[in-house]
Amino acid sequence: MKLGVNIDHVATLRNARGGFEPDPVRAALICQKAGANSIVMHLREDRRHVTDRDLFRVQDAIRIRLNMEMSIAPDILKAATRLKPHQSTLVPEKRTERTTEGGLDLKKNPVSIERAIEILKRKKIEISLFIDPDLKQVELAKKYGADAVEFHTGDYANQKSEPGRNREWVKLRNAVLVARQLSLKAHAGHGLDFENVGALKKIRGIEELNIGYSIITRSLWAGLDDSVREMIRIIS
Ligand code: PXP
Q1: Active site includes 69?
Q2: Are 87 and 117 in contact (CB under 8 A)?
Q3: Cα angle vertex 182, ends 139, 192, to 5°?
C-alpha cells in the first residue's frame, strides 16, 4: 500500500505567525526521505493553509508525486492547470467546515464535474474523486472518466464501537471491490491514525492511503522532548 502524506497542517502552523516557518517544502522533503510515495496538498478556495506558491515550491522540490486536493471552483481549476500536478483529487468544499466532511455527491452538478475532469485530463493530470463508499457513486466516478476513487474513511474512523467499525469496514471493502471490478484505482483517507489504519490492510485492492492530521500531530510528540532539551542546552 502506498502512502500519501497530507502536509496542509504544516502550512496551518506556518500561517499562525504569518512568517516562513515551518516551511511546507521542508516537510515535504522529510516525508519523501522517510519513504512517502506522494505529497498531498489541498488548495482551499479561502487559502486557509496551503497557498498557490506553496504548491509550486513543493512541486519544484520533490521527486515523488504531488497530489493536489481541490474543488472545481474556477480559480482553483485554473491554478491546477498551471501547476499540472501528477494527480488531482476532487473534493467537496464548504467555507465553514473544519475539514472535508464527506465525499463528493456525483449526482449533483454532473455537468460541472465532467467538465472539470475534461479540463484537467487535457493537461494529463490523473483524476481521483473523493467519494463515500457508496456503490452508486463508484459507478458514476467510472462514468465521468475518473482514474481513481478515494474513499472517505471518516465514518469508519469515527466509530467508537467494534460493531460500528466493522460495519463501516465492510462498506469500504465492498466499495473497493466494485471500484477494482470497474478498473478504477482505489484510494482511501480521512481520519486515519496509528490505531485504526491497521484493519485497512486487510482490504485487498486499496492502492493508496492519504493521511495527514495524525502524522503531523505525532511528529510533535516525536520531537517536542528533543526541542525542549536543545533549548535548555543553549540557554544553560
Ligand atoms: N484525503 C482527502 C481527500 C482529504 O480531504 C483529507 C483531509 O484534507 C485527507 C485525505 C487526510 O485526512 P486526515 O488529515 O484526517 O488524515
Answers
A1: yes
A2: no
A3: 75
Find out whether 200 and 188 touch, Cβ atoms under 8 Å: yes
Query: Mapping DSSP to helix (H, G, I), strand (E, B) and coil, where does residue 55 land?
Result: helix
**Atom 3, ligand 1: residue with shortest CA distance:** 130
Domain positions in the chain are 2-235
pLDDT at 83: 98
Ligand 1 lined by 151 (C-beta under 6 Å): no
User: What pLDDT score was predicted for residue 228?
Assistant: 98
So what's the pLDDT on residue 236?
97
Tell me the average confidence (pLDDT) per consecutive run of 10 residues in the chain, 236 residues long: 98 96 98 98 96 98 98 97 98 80 90 96 98 97 97 97 97 98 98 98 97 98 98 98
* The pLDDT value given to residue 96: 74
| Residue 89 CB–ligand 1 contact under 6 Å | yes
Q: Establish whether residue 192 lines the binding site of ligand 1, counting it when its CB lies within 6 angstroms of any ligand atom.
A: yes
Q: Please indicate whether residue 211, judged by its CB atom, sits closer than 6 Å to ligand 1.
A: yes
Q: Which CATH architecture has domain 2-235?
A: Alpha-Beta Barrel (3.20)
Rounded to the nearest 10 degrees, what angle do helices 24-34 and 8-17 cross at? 150
Considering 9, 49, 69, 93, which one is annotated as catalytic?
A: 69
Query: Is 42 one of the catalytic residues?
Result: yes
Please, where are the H alpha helices in the chain?
Answer: 8-17, 24-34, 52-61, 74-83, 110-122, 135-143, 154-158, 162-181, 213-235
The rounded Å distance from CA 210 to ligand 1 centre is 6
